[in-house]
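Researcher: I'd like a candidate sequence for this fold, 159 residues long. If you have to choose between options at a position, lean toward the conservative one.
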């Protein structure tokens, strides 16, 4: 993988994780103000329909509404032990706050390493103050050889 690719990925990760944990000021357009955002971290499983393979991985999410930085990684069970890392930004839909759409960059390794853009759409029910568990379902397209679609189910724990 080229050095410039590593620099781009590192810059995206650093940017997404450097948001201060202070009160965010929203404009008067009805955006939700989050005080002291916390990290969410958890495992996930998925299925890649093009590669006909199951995946297991994890996700780190910083729930700052309406934009949420996401970092995730997945391991494929296929021969050769491929893996994929993703750095994405998700945008919550205002009226349908359980739904989110987003995109970012995916790094896929299966013998050789390829980098390409991601698109995703997901569903995560609203947070309940009484529960630290946040389930979600996500569909993801990574624009590499073809456009493989992966469906992922996960559970994040509020840290």
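Model: Candidate sequence:
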């Amino acid at each position: 993988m080229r050095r410039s690719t590593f620099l781009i990925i590192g810059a995206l990760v650093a940017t997404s994780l450097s948001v201060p944990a202070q009160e965010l000021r929203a404009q008067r357009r009805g955006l939700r103000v989050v005080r002291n955002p916390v990290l969410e971290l958890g495992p996930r499983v998925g299925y890649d329909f093009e590669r006909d393979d199951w995946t297991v991985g994890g996700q780190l999410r910083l729930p700052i509404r309406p934009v949420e930085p996401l970092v995730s990684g997945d391991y494929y069970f296929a021969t050769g032990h491929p893996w994929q890392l993703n750095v994405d930004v998700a945008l919550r839909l205002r009226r349908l706050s359980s739904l989110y759409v987003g995109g970012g960059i995916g790094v896929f390794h299966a013998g050789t390493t390829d980098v390409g853009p991601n698109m995703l759409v997901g569903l995560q029910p609203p947070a309940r103050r009484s529960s630290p568990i946040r389930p979600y379902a996500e569909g993801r397209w990574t624009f590499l050889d073809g456009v493989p679609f992966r469906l992922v189910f996960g559970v994040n724990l509020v840290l």
